[in-house]
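Form 7-S
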Amino acid sequence: ATCVRWSPLENKFAIGSGAKIVNVCYYDDKYDWWVAKHIKKNIKSTVSTVDWHPNNMLLAAGATDFKVRVYSAFIKEIEDKPAPTPWGSKTTFGNLMAEFDNSELGGGWIHSVAFSGDGQKVAWVGHDSSLNVADAGNGQKLA
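Output:
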């Protein structure tokens, strides 16, 4: 494991790893056990950082492949179907909602990623000390 973060409602948590996956874990009352689901789509290297969207359903992941990705982390076993967001409406677990390059010059791996308080933007910092921001409303990187 390389990083971990509880969701805003604290009913699940995400773990980034060197195995090119993000585990999203939740407690299953029926079996009295923790369950892990895997997000693998398009991840080509170690996941170095994760952050939850304020809606508790989306997850941003930064990796050493110089990319930031936003995924659906909706778990139908424990959550009601979410409303569409500016990041997209397909909420199937593991669906890739957005993907961004660190910077035009490469920028190196992603050190940290964070959603804004309203969830409309995601920001990240890269190994080259660059700071980038992407806006869900227009799907574009702003800086």
